[in-house]
Write a structure and sequence with these properties.
37% of the residues lie in helices and 20% in strands. By secondary structure, the protein is α+β, with helices and mostly antiparallel strands. It has 2 domains: 4-44, Arc Repressor Mutant, subunit A (Orthogonal Bundle), CATH 1.10.10; 57-131, Alpha-Beta Plaits (2-Layer Sandwich). Strands 2-3-1-4 form a 4-stranded antiparallel β-sheet, covered by helices on one side. Strand 2 (90-95) and strand 3 form a beta hairpin. Helix 2 (21-28) crosses helix 3. The chain starts with a helix and ends in a 14-residue tail after the last strand.
């Protein structure tokens, strides 16, 4: 379980993983050594998994984002999974229950680029693609209490 201080530490890091230890400690009312100890314990427990960045794909020329549901043909599951893993434009993918086996998030620069990726997958799976218009909820932490 997390206490209020641990929750606040995670909220701070989720907003800006580049905060200095001094800034983090001040924000939660702890000394720097105490804050460092709390963070170390969160890491050891596997609660705090990594420190990362968030990028803005359109700033890099990736103006199209698609969600693709993938249903491999019989006997093709592992091959399709490998294709997905080896496609750098697929930035996220979940293996799911239900009619589809995978739900992937793809960033591309053009419709032609998307078609090329889908063609590689479609040789071994059925796909259903939706173009993302907007993201009213960006990736965020689940409730911490």
């Amino acid at each position: 379980m997390l206490d209020a201080v641990d929750g606040r530490l995670l909220d701070l890091l989720a907003d800006n993983a580049r905060l200095s230890l001094k800034e983090i400690a001040a924000a939660v009312g702890l000394s720097s050594p105490s804050a460092a100890d709390r963070l170390r314990k969160l890491e050891e427990r596997g609660v705090l998994d990594r420190y990362t960045i968030s990028i803005n794909p359109p700033a890099l020329g990736y103006f199209l984002q698609a969600i693709v549901r993938v249903r491999p043909m019989p006997g093709q599951l592992h091959i399709v999974e490998k294709i997905i893993q080896e496609t750098p434009e697929i930035v996220e993918c979940d293996k799911v229950t239900g009619d589809d086996c995978f739900i992937a998030r793809i960033y591309v620069r053009s419709m032609e680029e998307l078609d090329g990726i889908l063609d590689r997958i479609a040789e071994r799976a059925q796909t259903n693609t939706s173009i993302v218009k907007s993201s009213p909820v960006k990736r965020r932490l689940p409730p911490l209490s």
